[in-house]
UniProtKB/TrEMBL annotation:
The chain crosses the membrane at residues 12-31, 56-74, 86-108, 128-155, 167-187. Keywords: Cell membrane, Membrane, Transferase, Transmembrane, Transmembrane helix. Its main location: membrane. It is a multi-pass membrane protein. This is LTA synthase family protein. The keyword Transferase applies. Residues 267-538 form the Sulfatase N-terminal domain. Its EC number is 2.7.8.-. One of its GO terms (molecular function) is transferase activity.
Length: 613
């Protein structure tokens, strides 16, 4: 059947309706967050969200509108079936993405974008990250939404159900082409000079309200189009010279170490990175008691930095911040580009130059998130991953359990050339939180599983340290304990909150001369490497993005990033900034405008450096 002059707007309406319902599903799925919104907020979310809904609907409508225009020239063309099956296919794909987005937001705190592309080369590890998701519920959601709208289309919106009015064919052809041409208006968001972007739906100080207004596939498409296009700095807050000056003021070089906290020279260094160790579970940091008794004991035996933050919220980002002292990027990561990581300093390189043997131990897959290329650039003498462990020692998703990993490390270190620098990266406290011992704490929700996984890793760490203390090399060994990042659980922290980023940083071991000391200086992961190298008397100049946290000249300052935003912490409090909406999300009462400017300068200048790498 030939097209009606109203069919194209009718088809456009179908997709707008789909996205309105999809937004409703998103808000119901995250009902605890939605309940905190006012009725006015919810109405605004839907009204502002229509702008991006119209835009992505325009993209979806190009092929059907073009097919109808062709049908004006070729009346025998069977465009009805083409449009129908195109629509069915897009419904299935978008509903699947919608379901993935529902659970992704629960863990990451932002809508689906290009981030998962960084993990395509390791699908097994991607599946492991998703293992904690309620797959049955998400499958039902996918089928319900796609199936419901397929039926709605077939019986209400199908091309074959539109009757042809008594209008000359040339007029129908002209209208069809006109409708096609007019798609450019909703596609770019109107006739204004700057095309539509995510900021059109931002209206609230509550990030969830802004995120709920986003059109998920539009957000994904936008991210994919700019993925790997990092030639321009989107974080231009001030003149480059002004940003550089503010960063240099923050990170003025410290040449003194205040005091020596080591009892020996050239000690062995055990650098232990703890997966997802949030301060919310660390009793010695004011978190829940009883979850990490061994880590708490180690904090009492050594030096604990009590106001310490991760620089980002992903493992591969935290690794670069810790081992290279390099700032984290928001919507991308330097680790995915080997030609850039080749130019980064690494602790392993420094130790190798000082005559140390170097090794890296991880129970999982080093190819995950391009980590292996980064470590190879670091020149480690030995890389040990899951392939070095028997399959029976694996959990179902990631690799060898933490206690198995620690046993292998202990065995190897007894034969390692001294002095050694050995990095150990745990994994059992990563989703889906599988552990080989009986749970310590009750509950079956994700928070309870996470709590028990942290307890298990602490148990494995305690066993390892107890046995290590009995080895002849212990008296000459410095142990660095630090997390790769924090976690939204427990408490389901929003992705910008400082509580999500606060983590432990502890120095302990037989080589330490100072015991039972707390350092309250505010700092972040980029300062671990320079702090360590200052104490060891090793070259630290390349690690220019951090500070020596044991120096009285250190400016108490922590900087972290979340998806297209940053947080800045000082003793005065916290300020967080959303780059999309170009507005402050959170600002403590005593925080000055100068602190925000420092944060903007650090965001701008560090990303500029990333581009130039």
């Amino acid at each position: 059947m030939k097209p009606n002059l109203l069919y194209q707007p009718f088809y456009f309406l179908f997709w707008v309706l789909y996205f309105v319902v999809a937004r409703g599903v998103f808000m119901v799925y995250h009902l605890p967050r939605t309940e905190k919104l006012s009725g006015s907020d919810i109405l605004t979310i839907f009204l502002k969200g229509l702008q991006l809904d119209f835009s992505f609907t325009a993209y979806l409508s190009v092929i059907p509108f073009l097919a109808i225009s062709v049908a004006m020239v070729l009346p025998k063309a069977k465009v009805g079936k083409l449009i129908r099956y195109y629509t069915y296919g897009m419904l299935a794909l978008l509903s699947l993405l919608l379901s993935a987005d529902l659970e992704l937001y629960s863990f990451w705190g932002y809508r689906l974008d290009a981030t998962p592309l960084q993990y395509l080369s390791t699908p097994t590890e991607m599946a492991a990250s998703a293992a904690a998701a309620p797959l049955f519920l998400l499958t039902i959601v996918t089928i319900a939404i796609s199936g419901g709208f397929i039926l709605l289309y077939r019986f209400v919106f199908d091309y074959s159900r539109i009757a042809l009015p008594a209008i000359p064919k040339f007029l129908l052809a002209g209208l069809a082409v006109l409708y096609l041409a007019l798609l450019v208006l909703p596609l770019r968001g109107g006739v204004q000079q700057i095309p539509i972007n995510q900021s059109v739906v931002y209206f609230s100080d509550n990030p969830y309200a802004n995120h709920a207004g986003l059109n998920m596939p539009w957000n994904l498409m936008h991210a994919l189009l700019k993925y790997n296009k990092e030639s321009n700095n989107p974080y231009q807050y001030m003149a480059t010279e002004a940003a550089e000056a503010k960063v240099q003021e923050l990170l003025a070089a410290q040449t003194d170490t205040v005091r020596t906290v080591l009892a020996v020279q050239n000690p062995n260094v055990l650098f232990i990175i703890l997966e997802s160790y949030t301060a919310k579970f660390i009793g010695s940091l004011g978190g829940e008691q009883g979850v990490t008794p061994h880590l708490d004991a180690l904090a009492q035996e050594g030096i604990s930095f009590t106001n310490f933050y991760s620089s980002g919220d992903r493992s591969e980002k935290g690794m670069v911040a810790l081992l290279s002292g390099y700032p984290v990027q928001t919507v991308t990561s330097i680790i995915k580009t080997p030609k850039k990581t080749e130019k980064l300093p690494q602790l392993s390189k420094v130790f190798e130059q000082q005559g140390y043997s170097t090794s890296f131990y991880y129970g999982g897959e080093l190819e995950f998130a391009n980590i292996k290329s980064y470590l190879l650039n670091g020149g480690y003498d030995k890389l040990i991953d899951k392939h070095a462990f028997p399959a029976e020692s694996y959990n179902s998703k990631w690799g060898a359990h933490d206690h198995v990993l620690f046993e292998r490390v202990l065995q190897d270190l007894n034969h390692e050339k001294k002095p050694f620098f050995s990095t150990i990266y745990t994994l059992s406290s990563h989703e889906p939180f599988e552990i080989p011992i009986e749970p310590k704490f009750p509950g079956s929700d994700n928070a309870a599983k996470f709590r028990n996984s942290v307890y298990y890793t602490d148990w494995a760490l305690g066993r390892f340290i107890e046995k290590a203390k009995q080895q002849p090399w212990w008296a000459n060994t410095l142990v660095v304990l630090v997390a790769d990042h924090g976690h939204p659980l427990p408490g389901d922290d929003a992705n910008y909150l400082p509580s999500k980023f606060r983590i432990p940083f502890i120095l302990t071991g037989g080589a330490l001369s100072v015991k039972g000391t707390e350092i309250a200086t505010v700092g972040d992961q980029t300062s671990v490497a320079p702090t360590l190298l200052h104490q060891l008397g090793m070259p630290y100049e390349e690690f220019k993005w951090g500070q020596n946290l044991l120096s009285p000249k250190a400016k108490p300052f922590a900087f972290y990033v979340f998806n297209d935003g940053f947080g800045c912490v000082t003793p005065d409090g916290v300020v967080t900034f959303d780059n999309v909406g170009r507005k402050i999300i959170l600002k403590d009462e005593n925080v000055t405008d100068q602190q925000l400017e420092y944060g903007k300068a650090f965001m701008q200048y560090s990303f500029e450096d990333f581009i130039r790498k």
